Amino acid sequence: MLNLVLFGPPGAGKGTQADFLIEKYKLNHLSTGDLLRDQIAAETELGKEAKRYIDKGYLAPDSVVIEMIKNILKENKEANGYIFDGFPRTVAQAKALDELLNEYNIPVSGMLCLRVDEEELKQRLLNRGKTSGRPDDQDFSIIENRIRIYNEKTEPLRDYYRAQNKYYKIDGAGSIEEVTKRLVDTIAIL
Ligand code: AMP
User: Hey, which of 32, 47, 73, 94 would disulfide with 87, CB 3.0 to 4.6 Å?
Assistant: First the structure.
């Protein structure tokens, strides 16, 4: 069973690469950003609560995202493995994920961290905003806030996974195909 944490700042290419990897390795794609946007579109209570944070570029509360992940793992016991995309984003979420996966005896195989220069990230997000329809990609100050929050709350997770010998740094610059190859080469040694 392959359980991958696809990690990196907003705009690093996690979603794009996840699309390819789920196909190749027949994994379930679990993107908390997509799940939250689905909840917002469906105007659920959870969606309404999450929207208040997402629209400003802040993280949704840990309890909300952990509960979502818990339900999905429970409903998909037959899964071949997962790509966690945009989750975990805090140490509390990483601890909760380890506990949940321990229950099912399916530990994280590796954390693949896409590294991209900050100026490049901002440019990619602004470009994505022209077509994605995502309000949080269209405002420069919100983009900057998301990158700041990433550096503050999410980046420390590298140490969390490094301590478990599960941290793999991947250069996220270059073409989509070049980055995919680096990911595939790394997954081969997990
Ligand atoms: P993403 O699509 O991964 O860029 O996520 C978009 C937004 O959803 C983020 O800026 C957060 O506001 C929220 N979000 C997504 N995943 C998480 C998470 N694991 N924890 C907290 N908030 C999240």
Answer: 32
